């Protein structure tokens, strides 16, 4: 029997992924990474639900204390990033540095198992012509998580299964009910796990970063108001600026040196281009020259056509020029590029690569 480790968060998706693989005849071992204290997914509640699921399926369950890894790679990364005036993206970083790599290592080294599965909505296929593992959008585009998985290296993708990639969330709930899983009716997690655990990103950051008042200025430097710390602001933000104006104001920039939040009208939040770093090439090999692709500059953004030009030999830094200027290009977030526009899989749904947006020059 083929053995496989399934990452269990205690939610309906990973429960169903485990049940499907178990039903298909895999010898499933449940692994829950203990990421932080508190209630919610990935915390105490999630661990109990995961343990109960393993009891229902009569499979072994391992809990791996990953709190230090989570603290270093996610909590510190977020606090440092927000403190420096950027808006870091924790989920792709968590997938690469906390979940997939370490879980695969644990599976291999501690359990002698070389395959892992999760309840992510995305698809992986092997291309025999290029020898690469290609990452594709989920069949259920409304649940697609490929954006958060762009940073997985080939040697990890080669060992990963996504049993839910071809089905819709409604089907997942139906399958969970058919298998009588106690998690079948469990409500959807609405937010980032950290936000669920702390109430809001503001509450989370306020635990680590002291208030540091400064000026809110317009693009000519005129002082319009006061802020209580640049870490409470992100590019494109409209709410909570607290400055009265005839036209709605948006955050267009954060000047760390001057401790200023710069605001302007909606048009000034549009950028014709940006640069990205720490690029990971996924479904295609590192290109030696410019390529055209559909770039998704934020999780829920529509992918838009753009030209990508490598800025170094190994194409780990790129300049992206959008065909049309884009709203809210935010340093710290990931830009992920696909071979299609995400509206129709027949026009291309492969993740070609992705990288972290750098601070605007
Ligand atoms: N603490 C954890 N330990 C092990 N695996 C995890 C953990 N958290 C998440 N995963 C895996 O990553 C997948 C996606 O996680 P995400 O946080 O997006 O949860 P989700 O989509 O709400 O899924 P679920 O319903 O399973 O919680 C989960 O389905 C699970 O397989």
Automatic annotation (TrEMBL):
Its main location: cytoplasm. One of its GO terms (biological process) is tRNA wobble position uridine thiolation. Residues 202-265 form the tRNA-specific 2-thiouridylase MnmA-like central domain. It catalyses: S-sulfanyl-L-cysteinyl-[protein] + uridine(34) in tRNA + AH2 + ATP = 2-thiouridine(34) in tRNA + L-cysteinyl-[protein] + A + AMP + diphosphate + H(+). The record marks 120, 333 as: Interaction with tRNA. Catalyzes the 2-thiolation of uridine at the wobble position (U34) of tRNA, leading to the formation of s(2)U34. CDD domains: MnmA_TRMU-like (cd01998). Residues 143-145, 298-299 are annotated as: Interaction with tRNA. The keyword Cytoplasm applies. The active site is at residues 94, 193. HAMAP family: tRNA_thiouridyl_MnmA. GO terms for molecular function: ATP binding; tRNA binding; tRNA-uridine 2-sulfurtransferase activity. Residues 273-357 form the tRNA-specific 2-thiouridylase MnmA-like C-terminal domain. ATP binds at residues 7-14, 33, 119. It is an enzyme of class 2 (transferase). InterPro entries: MnmA-like, MnmA-like_C, MnmA-like_central, MnmA-like_central_sf, Rossmann-like_a/b/a_fold. SUPFAM superfamilies: Adenine nucleotide alpha hydrolases-like (SSF52402). Its EC number is 2.8.1.13. Pfam families: tRNA_Me_trans, tRNA_Me_trans_C, tRNA_Me_trans_M. Keywords: ATP-binding, Cytoplasm, Disulfide bond, Nucleotide-binding, RNA-binding, Transferase, tRNA processing, tRNA-binding. This is tRNA-specific 2-thiouridylase MnmA. It is found in: Cytoplasm. The gene is mnmA. GO terms for cellular component: cytoplasm. The lineage of its organism: Bacteria, Bacillati, Cyanobacteriota, Cyanophyceae, Oculatellales. It comes from Thermoleptolyngbya sichuanensis A183. Belongs to the MnmA/TRMU family.
